[in-house]
Amino acid sequence: MAADVIALHDLVFRHPGNHHPTLAIPELRIGAGQRVALIGTSGAGKSTLLRLLDGRLRGWSGSCAVLGRPLDPDSPPPRLWRRSVGFVFQEFALVERETVRQNVLNGRLGHADALWSLTGRFGAPDHAAADRAIQDVGLDEFAKRRVDRLSGGQRQRVAIARCLAQEPRIVLADEPISSLDPVTAHTVLDLLRNSAVDRRATLVISSHQPQLVAGYVDRFIALDRGRIVFDGPPNAIDETQLSGIYGETA
Ligand SMILES: Nc1ncnc2c1ncn2[C@@H]1O[C@H](COP(=O)(O)OP(=O)(O)OP(=O)(O)O)[C@@H](O)[C@H]1O
């Protein structure tokens, strides 16, 4: 069995001032190379869990190890760890006035060496990784175009390419398809799955749309008010369970 790249134990997190925990997870393990969808209604805690795994959440209790490193609830993880964990933000978080290529190169900042510190220029390995990522997401012809002149689906692909250029061992994607039409959503999910498989990366995506993501992952983890209420293969969840998680909207 694949080694765990994510291991949580007795994890509890409460937003300051909130009585109920935002996350309460007694145990969660995710193996290397798994593809997981975090599902659940708005406010279930999906983004908070992704922020925890990305090392950006402070003030939790219990233990959380990612890529073998126990995270510290009181301080951010080191740069070397950070570059192994890629994050695709819901709102893309791109530099709008920069080109596709420059945005993707920004994903290499965690790898940048002395040359970058001295000159602000990226080295050959950084350019090669950026080119490969741009090619993988099918944006070659747009490489020199400014991001603010792209469609939503194209921007999402730039955000994914930036994450891939980082050469992460884990890809975390927060609602990567929420603002896309169904056809573009499938293209983006295909990209995320294929690039994770090619790079042997672990993929964790959050989504409100279990039916749409089911074909792209091998595991559903459903959250309800911060608790795991289902954990298994997508084909093992039935309509009644989905209705329980989503109410009338399933
Ligand atoms: N800064 C904050 N302060 C207090 N409560 C917060 C804060 N951010 C989020 N919450 C609460 O934490 C809970 C979990 O939010 P989270 O964003 O993780 O849910 P989610 O499942 O990702 O929702 P969505 O699908 O809408 O993005 C919600 O009840 C939310 O209101």
Automatic annotation (TrEMBL):
| Entry-linked InterPro entries | AAA+_ATPase, ABC_transporter-like_ATP-bd, ABC_transporter-like_CS, ABC_transpr_LolD-like, P-loop_NTPase
Keywords assigned: ATP-binding, Nucleotide-binding
Q: Has the keyword Electron transport been applied to this entry?
A: no
Extract the signal peptide range. Answer: none
Protein name in UniProt: ATP-binding cassette domain-containing protein
Family designation: Belongs to the ABC transporter superfamily.
GO MF annotation terms? ATP binding
List, for all copies, the residue spans of the domain called ABC transporter.
Answer: 6-250
Q: Which PROSITE patterns match?
A: ABC_TRANSPORTER_1, ABC_TRANSPORTER_2
Q: Which Gene3D superfamilies match?
A: P-loop containing nucleotide triphosphate hydrolases (3.40.50.300)
Q: Which organism is it from?
A: Neoaquamicrobium sediminum
Q: Which domain of life is it from?
A: Bacteria
